[in-house]
């Protein structure tokens, strides 16, 4: 059942919140031992909350927008009284002492948070294999990685262990696992959603966003989590669109009529042929729905990964200085995995004064150039469409060089470098392995992306 329909059914007493939750708890019990999407559950509290929501509905009292829907939260977002470990030994005993702004909003709207989901350690990865608590398996492609770093959140939705989930996206960590697990994932414009309460990977890139099986679920979550936060200085004060209204709008025969969609040649060139075939199929579909395709060229593609990783290392290094063992458990360098340690060492080296002009400042200049060029391309079109990830997910445990791992991110880091909104939506599969279509938009044009996702979904 679609998320919006279920939400209505719960409010109309056709299904109870308790039944909805119980179905998911049964599924988690059955599947989580091998999928490993959830690291911690709050089932007793969730059952109590579901009962309480049902009583309010029975009494005819007003309930929130997420009433009775069940959610998973990436374990780098603070939820009071749950372990916020960022999947690292460093924080294995850290209990969230407060609710992040997004969590507060979810709770205010009566969403039921059932537990915390697995991820790459400190969100530094694209496979969810670097979690201190073991890898997550891709429910749609057994034996393979779910992508990352929000692999647990994507897998939880794909395996039907919850209605919705949230993750964080610094260089693709929502879109990449959404693509690999065959679900929708949305990274809003930088600043559209408050990051207050999120453990930083690289603060100038990090954004929180939702996963769902359908566009209605994404719309509902955006309606809840988007908005200015006076406690978080990077959030934007803007006219928030009606996300849900856009999805529920009656679809015409040609829902994309009048839309110009950019197709960047280089995005296809770097991707595997089988992925390109699927994406070209989606593009044909969009043309049938009335869109016009415009060929574009983005010459800075080779600059994107080095620029992103340089800035990531420096910002991550700075963010980790508080994990010195005095306040938060272990000293990070003593207990973390190889990738986190690599970033700390690289970040420390690059941050040293004598090198700053050589690397970091250059990276910031490259970032401005990438942002300028992307905005220029976006100015001539409504959105840019292409593959989300250039390769299919590998089998769990395959040894990859760091550069091979980073290569998964080439198409997703661009939106974070530019601060623009971007999402991944299911486009098809290669022998059963899901492939996602990425849609990138102008800053604060998040709604347009969602409209395209909804149109493609209605066409299925
Ligand atoms: N894979 C990218 C990285 O390792 C992106 C991670 C993310 O978006 N959190 O930095």
Rg over alpha carbons: 21 Å
Q: Please report the total strand number as a whole number.
A: 11
CATH-defined topology of the largest domain: Amidase signature (AS) enzymes
The ordered H/E elements are HHEHEHEHEHEEHHEHHEHHHHHEHHEEH
* Low-confidence runs: none
- Give the name of the CATH architecture of the largest domain: Alpha-Beta Complex
CATH homologous superfamily of the largest domain - what is it? Answer: Amidase signature (AS) domain
Instruction: Report the average pLDDT across residues.
Output: 97
Q: Counting H and I runs of at least 4 residues, what is the number of helices?
A: 18
Shape: globular
Largest sheet: 11 strands, mixed
- Give the spatial strand order of the biggest sheet: 1-3-2-4-6-5-10-11-9-7-8
The ligands bound in this entry are: glutamine
What is the chains' assembly state? single chain
Look at the structure and give the CATH class of the largest domain.
Answer: Alpha Beta
Which structural class do the helices and strands define? alpha/beta
Helix content: 40-55%
How many discrete structural domains? 2
Distance between the ends: 15 Å
Strand content: 5-15%
């Amino acid at each position: 059942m679609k998320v919006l329909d279920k939400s209505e059914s719960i409010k109309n007493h056709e299904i109870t919140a308790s039944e909805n939750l119980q179905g998911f708890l049964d599924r988690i019990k059955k599947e989580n031992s091998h999928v490993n999407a959830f690291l911690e559950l709050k089932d007793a509290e969730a059952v109590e909350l579901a009962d309480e929501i049902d009583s309010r509905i029975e009494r005819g009292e007003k309930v929130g927008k997420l009433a009775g829907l069940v959610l998973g939260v990436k374990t780098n977002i603070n939820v009071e009284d749950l372990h916020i470990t960022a999947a690292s030994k460093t924080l294995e005993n850290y209990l969230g002492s407060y609710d992040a702004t997004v969590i507060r909003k979810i709770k205010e709207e009566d969403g039921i948070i059932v537990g915390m989901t697995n991820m790459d350690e400190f969100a530094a990865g694209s496979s969810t294999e670097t979690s201190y608590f073991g890898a997550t398996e891709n429910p749609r492609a057994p034996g393979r990685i779910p992508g990352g770093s929000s692999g647990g959140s994507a897998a939880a939705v794909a395996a039907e262990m919850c209605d919705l989930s949230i993750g964080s996206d610094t260089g693709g960590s929502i879109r990449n696992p959404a693509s690999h697990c065959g679900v929708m994932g949305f990274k809003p414009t930088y600043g559209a959603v408050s990051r207050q309460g999120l453990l930083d990977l690289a603060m100038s890139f990090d954004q929180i966003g939702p996963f769902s099986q359908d566009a209605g679920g994404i719309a509902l979550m955006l309606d809840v989590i988007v908005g200015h936060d006076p406690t978080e200085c990077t959030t934007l004060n803007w006219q928030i669109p009606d996300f849900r209204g856009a999805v529920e709008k009656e679809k015409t025969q040609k829902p994309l009529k009048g839309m110009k969609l950019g197709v960047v040649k280089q995005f296809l060139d770097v991707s595997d042929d089988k992925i390109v075939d699927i994406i070209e199929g989606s593009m044909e579909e969009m043309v049938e729905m009335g869109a016009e395709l415009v060929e574009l060229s983005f010459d800075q593609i080779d600059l994107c990964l080095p620029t992103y990783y340089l800035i990531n290392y420096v910002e991550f290094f700075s963010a980790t200085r508080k994990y010195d063992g005095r306040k938060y458990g272990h000293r990070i360098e003593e207990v973390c995995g190889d990738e986190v340690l690599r970033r700390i060492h690289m970040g420390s080296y690059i941050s040293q004064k004598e090198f700053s002009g050589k690397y970091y400042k250059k990276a910031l200049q490259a970032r401005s150039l990438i942002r300028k060029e992307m905005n220029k391309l976006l100015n001539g079109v409504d959105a840019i469409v292409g593959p989300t990830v250039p390769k299919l997910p590998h089998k769990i445990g395959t040894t990859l060089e760091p550069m091979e791992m980073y290569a998964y991110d080439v198409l997703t880091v661009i939106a974070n470098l530019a601060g623009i909104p971007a999402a991944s939506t299911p486009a098809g599969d290669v022998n059963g392995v899901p492939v996602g279509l990425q849609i990138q938009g102008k800053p604060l044009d998040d709604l347009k992306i969602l409209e395209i996702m909804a149109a493609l979904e209605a066409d299925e």
